[in-house]
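Lab meeting, item 3. Inverse folding demo.
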């Protein structure tokens, strides 16, 4: 019996996909990358914003075609879209055989058995489950890098976000369990660990009574074979002085700070139900840069939030120009049913929101290029990921400054020797908007 799966959305969803793959493999199911060969096809969906929902539906319809053109006997929809719209999906899309909610990945074999027996089922978890170090997992990332989910769900109730409605409250893993998984990954050859959660800086509050990310990091750096550890999705509220000190003083921890800020106008932030202000975030960034020399700062923002005036958008633009992040991600606000912002007056026209998106990204592109140009002559350790598509003489990789998938890369010229997973010392020779060019520094 063969199964194929596509994983949509964020890295947190990808970990769920890898766990389902591991469970299937442990039960004797063969995994295939060719959907035409699969008896079971699974779409692990995202439902964060409207475009993610559209992508999920498109992939479901595409996979459904293999019931006619391939061997598919069971089409299973997993993840956020299934969790949120399970009944509607099953009623309106007869080609779907099973729905698995976000916290029911451990029931994947039950879904397979039921659907192959001719039954259509909905399997939903209890929002109190998270995988552990001993859970079967089949990684889909390259051998040298892995995501480690340290917590599931979210305790915040931001006005625009449906994640707590879908994923439930925060459930953290223990420090001991996470360290066990990281040690296992290191033995398998993983050099880069990327820690993820909906809010990594809130890690541990539910089981320890207070955030414990700094303590977790102190344990993980003891794992000998790990080259570097990156923290993603670190909300500013719990970005403590202790955490800043750990990042600054532990060589294995990437000097990389990923802050989902969402906006800079205080009235908008208040409406978003964010606990931060422009002033508090500015002070935090100032402190981070003072205590972590060379830090790479990534920020994410939302434009087109209901009621956002031209003046408030200008406040956001001015803020970006003031703090000069190294990287920025911008989302156009997406109205999500069940969130408080969905009912707000002053919904922004789509073309206005798109114009603001492009305007903010244009501002950031100039900042990013200037920062990358300022790196010329500096040296970095780069984790090689592959080769340039147009030249086998150019290697591509990432330093501590770039997270996988969302940031740019280093392109190392005249390097035909490096292999994926190698760590090489390079000197930057040119900087561009997203990427940098470099040359290898060979040891004598």
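The presenter then showed the designed sequence:
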């Amino acid at each position: 019996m063969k199964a194929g799966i596509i994983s949509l959305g964020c890295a947190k969803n990808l970990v769920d996909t890898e766990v389902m793959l591991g469970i299937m493999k442990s039960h004797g199911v063969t995994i295939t990358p060719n959907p035409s060969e699969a008896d079971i096809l699974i779409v692990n969906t995202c439902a964060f914003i409207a475009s993610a929902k559209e992508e999920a539906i498109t992939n479901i319809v595409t996979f459904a075609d293999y019931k006619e053109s391939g061997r598919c006997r069971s089409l299973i929809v997993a993840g956020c879209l299934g969790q949120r719209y399970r009944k509607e999906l099953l009623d309106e899309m007869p080609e779907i055989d099973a729905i698995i909610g976000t916290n029911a990945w451990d029931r994947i074999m039950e879904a397979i058995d039921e659907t192959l027996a001719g039954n259509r089922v909905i399997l939903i978890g209890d929002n109190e489950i998270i995988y552990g170090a001993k859970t079967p997992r089949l990684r889909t990332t390259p051998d040298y890098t892995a995501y480690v989910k340290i917590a599931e769900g979210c305790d915040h109730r931001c006005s625009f976000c449906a994640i707590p409605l879908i994923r439930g409250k925060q459930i953290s893993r223990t420090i001991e369990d996470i360290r066990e998984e990281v040690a296992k990954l290191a033995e398998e050859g993983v050099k880069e660990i990327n820690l993820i959660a909906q809010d990594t800086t809130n890690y541990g509050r539910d089981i320890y009574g207070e955030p414990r990310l700094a303590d977790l990091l102190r344990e993980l750096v003891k794992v000998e074979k790990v080259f570097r550890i990156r923290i993603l999705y670190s909300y500013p509220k719990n970005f403590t002085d202790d955490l800043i000190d750990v990042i600054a003083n532990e060589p294995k921890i990437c000097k990389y700070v990923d802050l989902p800020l969402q906006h800079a106008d205080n009235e908008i932030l208040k409406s978003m139900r964010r606990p931060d202000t422009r002033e508090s975030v500015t002070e935090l960034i100032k402190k981070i840069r003072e205590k972590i020399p060379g830090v790479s700062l990534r920020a994410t923002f939302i434009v087109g939030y209901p009621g956002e005036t031209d003046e408030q958008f200008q406040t956001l633009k001015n803020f970006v120009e003031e703090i000069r992040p190294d990287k920025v991600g911008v989302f156009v606000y997406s109205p999500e049913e069940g969130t408080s912002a969905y009912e707000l007056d002053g919904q922004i026209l789509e073309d206005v929101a798109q114009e603001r998106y492009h305007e903010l990204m244009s501002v950031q592109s100039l900042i990013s290029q200037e920062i990358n140009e300022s790196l010329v002559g500096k040296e970095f350790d780069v984790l090689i990921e592959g080769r340039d598509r147009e030249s086998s003489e150019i290697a591509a990789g990432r330093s501590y400054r770039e997270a996988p998938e969302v940031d740019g890369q280093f392109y190392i010229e005249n390097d035909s020797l490096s292999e994926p997973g190698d760590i090489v010392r390079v000197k930057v020779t040119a900087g561009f908007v997203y990427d940098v060019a470099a040359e290898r520094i060979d040891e004598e």
